[in-house]
Design goal:
single chain, 171 residues, 5-stranded mixed β-sheet, 5 helices, 31% helix, globular, disordered C terminus
């Protein structure tokens, strides 16, 4: 499973850790949905690999808010992300941010959840943006959506969705 954020925020750029801003809900939601056995801190992102998880971004440029990125930056990021996915061949790509997903992959009708599009053998799931600025989704609702992803990928986790970190879903 490769999780993908939109782009680094200023705190993430300063620390070198994904979803580093204290108000970001990625790490609590990742744990609440069963992907990790405990809530990791951004500085512990290296532990994700031991749970069969990876993390990256659509765009590399750091901004205070994702809406500061231009459409072309997101389209180019989508092309680069597709190349990364083809290289590493994760079974699933989970993009956290539906608007960025739509722009990066040219799918203006995409909705939260599993996508019809694949990249090679990699399935794609669009997730809500966990930024604290996203008032449309509560942490609880996000955890439920991340949990739907976890349950849908249970076949790749021999212990089932109730056994986080028991297997690697990455090819």
């Amino acid at each position: 499973m490769l999780f993908c954020g939109i782009n680094p925020g200023l705190m993430s750029a300063a620390t070198g850790h994904h979803f580093a801003r204290p108000g970001n809900r990625f790490w609590p939601v990742l744990h609440a949905s069963g992907f990790t056995p405990r809530q990791l801190k951004p500085a512990e992102q290296g532990e994700l690999l031991s749970y069969g998880l990876g993390i990256t971004n659509v765009a590399a440029r750091a901004t205070a808010k994702a809406d500061e990125l231009g459409d072309e930056e997101l389209r180019e990021g989508g092309r680069l992300l597709e190349a990364t996915v083809r290289r590493y061949e994760p079974r699933w790509l989970a993009v956290a941010g539906i608007t960025a997903y739509r722009l990066a992959f040219g799918d203006k009708h995409a909705t939260i959840g599993p996508q019809e599009r694949t990249i090679g053998g990699t399935r794609i799931w669009a997730l809500p943006n966990p930024s604290g600025l996203n008032a449309h989704w509560t942490a609880q609702a996000m955890a439920e959506e991340f949990g739907r992803l976890r349950a849908a990928t249970a076949a790749y986790w021999p212990g089932g969705p109730e056994a986080p970190g028991t297997a690697s879903p990455v090819s």
